[in-house]
Amino acid sequence: MQYRKLGNSGLDISTVGIGTNNFGRRMDLNATQKVIHKAIDLGINFFDTSNTYGNQLSEEYIGKTITKDIRRNIIIATKFGMDMGGIPNNIGASRKHILEQVDDSLKRLNSDYIDLYQIHVPDPHTPILETLTTLNDLVRSGKVRYIGCSNFAGWQIAQAMETSRKESLEAFVSNQPEYSMLNRSIETEILPACENYKLGILPFFPLANGFLTGKYKRNQPPPSGTRLSESAESANTYFTSKNFDIIEKLEQLANDANHTVTELAISWLLSNNNVSSVISGATKTSQLEINAKAADWDLETDVLDEIEIILNSKG
Ligand SMILES: NC(=O)c1ccc[n+]([C@@H]2O[C@H](COP(=O)([O-])OP(=O)(O)OC[C@H]3O[C@@H](n4cnc5c(N)ncnc54)[C@H](OP(=O)(O)O)[C@@H]3O)[C@@H](O)[C@H]2O)c1
Q1: Strand, coil or helix: what is 72?
Q2: How far apart are CA 241 and CA 218, in angstroms?
Q3: Which of 100, 222, 238, 310 has a 20 to 30 A CA-CA distance from 171?
Q4: What is the CATH number of the domain that holds 182?
């Protein structure tokens, strides 16, 4: 496994991490524990969760699995800001909500600290200064070690980073946007903002919900038990003739180099040095083994050029 600094911070995280939104939702405790232990065996140290995943079971299962003796070797990133239900102030990035959510997450994670605390989505109703001051206090208190954002637009990154600088507050070290070979919309505004402020990028949906593994085939129903077999709506957005043209060409390119298209999708993201870790969500230990290997494939310029032609082809 290879490790990279998380943005401008001193923290080393594995270039292949693991996303955990399947934990507690599509995976029970037993399946989750197998995947967590396998990840650790493979040298994966970066775990991305949230206070919402699996109705809080994702954090809870991580807390039940990461015992005190291995906690130090693991980097846990979690998030706050999504709607926690029903009552006023139970959403967003206000001082009140953050201070309540951090304690709830710590309890579920069975930990004294969170390595990376991320605002899940921008909160247009709370001044960014209130949010950053609260996060700064959490870092000072030791409950949180680094802070990051997710789903921020370029201007929101700039606003937050300039506020931290002006007020001498802790600053975001990462941003978590959607980014994959099939969704490159961050490349116009968000990626340049991250590059400018040296924020590590943690792409979500890096495998396009599994489509970029090549397991979904043209004119065939999705294999049972897979994520896209469970949501016709998501499946319909991916199962287009253009996307199948792309995946078939990418698969050929990867196979010719004795690799899998999954490895290609991950190593392509890692070919950008602003990407700190690719946090694909694996449901099986066998998937993790494939994903972990991707970090060893350093894509050469001619392969990157071929990928560019395929991704830009009209289909
Ligand atoms: N910040 C945000 O707003 C946000 C939003 C979404 C996600 N996230 C985070 O980002 C992480 C990554 O996104 P994601 O997990 O939703 O999407 P993803 O990595 O694009 O896709 C995950 C799916 O890919 C399949 N998969 C993974 N490795 C595979 C392999 N080697 N072979 C075959 N299939 C493989 C699994 O499908 P099967 O289930 O079919 O086995 C898994 O459920 C999440 O886990 C979460 O931590 C953040």
Answers
A1: coil
A2: 8
A3: 100
A4: 3.20.20.100
